[in-house]
Here is the input.
Amino acid sequence: MPPRLNLFTARAAVFRPASSNQSVSRRSITSLLNANRSSAASSSANGPKSSLPQTRYSSSDSKGKGDAAKVPEEPLPHVSEEAAEVANIMNKKCDGSAPASPELEQGTPISEILKRDTDAQKYAPKVLKDQGKGPSGSRSFSTSTRRTQADLQRDQQMEPSAAMVASMISQVNQQAAELNPGLKFPAPESLPRTENFRTRYDTLLDQFTKQLMRDGKLATAQRNMSLILDHLRTTSPPQVHAKRRLLGNPSTPQLPMNPVLYLTLIVDSVAPVIKLRQQKGIAGGGASVPVPFALNERQRRRQAIRWIIDASDKRRDSSLAQRVANELVAVAEGRSGVWERREHTHKMGVAGRANVGLTARK
Amino acid sequence: MVSSFCWSCLTRLPTPRPLLSAPATIPRAASAAASFHTSTARAFPMPTKKSKSQDSGPKYRQAKSARMKKKKPTDKPRPPPIGERRALRKRIVLSNPNALEVEGMQDIDADTMVDSHLHGNVLGLPVTMLDQLRAVQAFKPKQGWSIFRRPGTVVRRETLEMGRLFDRISGDGADKGKVVKKIVTGPKGSGKTVHMLQAMAMAFTKKWVVFSVPDAQELTLAHTGYAPLSDEQPNLYVQKDSTAALLSRTAIANQAVLKDLRVSQNHPALKMPIKEGTTLEDLTKIGIRDPALAWPVFQALWTELSATSPAAGFEKNFKPRPPMLVTVDGLAHWMKNSNYLNMESKPIHAHDLVFVRHFLSLLKSGSQNPTLPNGGLLLYATSASNCPSLPTFEVALKQLEARQAGVNPASAEFPQPKAYSNPDPRVLDIANVSKPASAKEGPVELQTLGGLSREEARGFLEYFARSGLLRERISDEMVSEKWTLAGNGVIGELEKLGKRLRVAAQ
Here is the structure.
């Protein structure tokens, strides 16, 4: 098993001293106890149940020597620590600042309260009092759950100085964390979506290119797309139409130098929010009524791109790329008929608003 | 009659014999069931309903056949006017007003072209020179000049070397008036054409005369007129329109130089009196105006520019002639049969076109004088994207390379054409360089352009970033990544990568 990395953040470290001054861990306590009692327990002969672990211990002694070179595992943490750790992993965001559940974040371990509050110590349940004192019972059988053979062997190896080894491990873990574990170079803060070669193009750019495609000729469509982007890059910034502004009201002089953003704004600005569906059987009498329904982002863009390409077909420029590019600029300047189509769709949608929610009669 | 044998096993089926055999002859009419009423039904048949379709039969003089609906022709937009598409295709845009002005960018001039501190930087082309460069068609449509504020080229190692070469040939040192001949090769996108553009810019800076053939293919494509040169030489062909175009390019681009030089030689071949004191610009214009005279005028101009001293009677206005730069792009198209046909309808070899022959003869060493007596530079570039398959030419280039590396032509390592491959002896002759008689003349060299170095690539990408096109931090890692992606710094690929706008994660 590889050495555990120290996953605790500063917040989680609050729990540490509480468990470390109690003992190294539950498991190590029991194993230590068992080791001390090994000769006595075997002689007392309490029964086959209890004698089994001890015989295992003694028989595996010779085998365990082979594993001596292995780095021993850090003792298991306290239950609440474990929960904190799990919560930490589950709820963690990229920046590591995500909150865990409040009881884990703001709660104080009872052992700490007991330590500073004498009243509470007095009235504490017996279980907690016993826990504070540490194990004192003289049970002759082990209450720890049986673990795998390998773990038992390892436990035996680390018995003599479990605490010392644990501290060594934490030290090594700390060093490993400092040295970017497993990475030769510092890890990137975040890998952009466009770094993956399958999604190397911008979402909208990809969608627009695919809709430009005719007869499955993607390379031609891509060439046209690059011509369109070059056109957007080189034409003068759009004259803003008073009523038909681009989404977000960007500063127009800077738009041409970011043609992808320019294109995105143009498409998103004329994208309709709804679509009308002619539905039969609502009004009765076989008449179909228009029912508006909402579109998601991709569907909206698809409709807008469709309109833009349709409108560009009526232009007189010689090449497709030129036609589409000119149409895009016309949209940006509010001259295009695409705006009217969008307004019409929205008007019809408002008119058909009453039909939303009606169900077909059967 | 059904056979009584079973079809599959040929055993006789047990057919029940009819106990009473039917009478052999029964009249046919009697066997059919007789209808109960015969006469009345036949005499008065039920009136059938008239079907509508039969009712509307063909009227008088109407076609009976089914009418096919004619498709209405959808009104297609008219095709664009003639020449518009070509103009759009050939359009060269050199400026993008949206792009940022790169601050502190220097221009190519006599100082900067030899300054090794500028290695890896981008030098702008002087605005006043752009018309000259356009005239010699130094810019090509597919090059990405249109996205920058103003055109600029990166100073690579070869550029600096060339700048020093220009400086030496123009200067007063030992290399003054030297002739250097180079065939420029390299992979696709490695900057061969831009290398020639830089050479032209340097030549204009140094006041050289520039002759440029921007596309060698145009001369062998059979797109321009051709005619036998003369009755004496029926196997040589002249292309007068192409020659006039060359003269026109030369006159516009080198106007400043040509208008100061005056005629200093006799030109009997011109068959027209040339006034004394005519400038070379005016001489060139004769050929531009009358393409029939273009070839003799070109020869006269060439004689004038390669004159070292005036002929008798012309001493008055003689000025020493400047060095010359000759550039040819797409050399491989001159190494095969052209698309022209001779009288016997056999293809004419490109070497039989006088225009081509003239420029190829410059690669050969002169007998005693250098080919360019006033010095100069020949830059003939191959093209990797528009290149016919010419095994002989490839071998010739390999031979040139081997010669340059010092391989003995008699040795076994010297590249030879494949056996039975029927090599073109005229093409192989290109590589057959003899030692030049004149010390001022160098043999033909092969210059192979490769990728940029990382420092040069960095300077190039910084130019993109400072123009506002590349929105990324230019770090060593980023440059290294792009350099690798560009096939070890092939500049054409680097340009594509620099142009590609990468949007942050979404």
